[in-house]
Amino acid sequence: MTSTKYIGLDVHKESISIAVMNSVGKVVMECVIETKASTIPQFIHGMRGDLHVTFEEGSWASWLYDLLKPHVTELVVCSPRKIALLNKIKPVYHGELGLRMLKELSRSYLMISKDLGRVMNRLKALYRGWAIPCAGTQVYATHYRSEWLSKIGEAGVRRRTELYYQQLDALRLVRQQARKELLAEARKHRATKLLRQIPGIGPLRAAHLVALLQTPHRFRTKRQLWTYSGLALETHDSAPYRVVEGQLQRSKKPVTLRGLNSNHNHDLKDIFKGAAMRASTAAGPFAG
Questions:
Q1: What are the tens digits of pLDDT across the range 152-210?
Q2: 237, 199 in Cβ contact below 8 A?
């Protein structure tokens, strides 16, 4: 009869601590191996039976997921937050290899955009630090650059500003290339064409949505999707029951709404908010 083994991995930069339990919950093996692409499959191949493996989501998760998935019966990447709060294994979706390129390009574009925003904020903060008003976007424009630099009298500060401008220009070029590759990859996926039919969702937002969500079937209900997107209403009630004639009864006082849930995918929420704002201002069924 095929035996079942449950394997937990604690992944570190140099090593992986492993604990193996049998079907009745008894620890049958504990060991430490190197964090190498050759060592990990060797260990798994040395085990027999149905192998159920779990490890926490982290910087190594995607690499380890792709490495182990073909060799085990079940693989669960779990949320460290849920384990810490509830002592419960909550799976983190890792998707399929067919969308990996789109996912990585989307992640690159979003990260480069955030880096670009940080540099733009540093530039304005530098001007404001020297009491130079800099509202609007003219401060970033190439053809106004000499004019803005001339407002800074201190040579060291001016040189620092020049370096920020060089960083700004470099990031703009990199983001432009990342955008081009992201849109080209997105055109290979039929779902992006369907999403673009929604008002406010253009080719770039559609590409990000497919990359971030991958498939709607990962969610059991629409409410789970909205919760993941940060658009679910949260309610809190510190006194749901009251004592009436010695008996506990649920209070008839309406539950107070506390706003949207805080535990969500922030990039996904930004996309939906941006699409809603775009649809409300452009000509269409949602125009305000």
A1: 999 999 999 999 999 999 999 999 999 999 999 999 999 999 999 999 999 999 999 99
A2: no
Q: What is the DSSP letter of 131?
A: T
What digits encode the pLDDT tens for the residues 94-106? 776 678 899 999 9
Spatial distance between the Cα atoms of 151 and 265, rounded to a whole number of angstroms = 41
Positive or negative CA dihedral for 225, 227, 228, 231? positive
Rounded to an integer, what distance in angstroms lies between the CA atom of residue 47 and that of residue 5?
A: 9
CB neighbour burial string for 198-222, b if at least 16 within 10 angstroms, e if fewer = ebbbebbbbbbbbbbbbeeeebeee
| Strand ranges, E, within the chain | 4-11, 15-21, 27-34, 50-56, 74-78, 233-236, 241-244, 247-250, 256-260
Rounded to 5°, angle at Cα 275 from 274 and 281: 90
Nearest Cα to Cα of residue 263 among 237, 216, 227, 239: 227
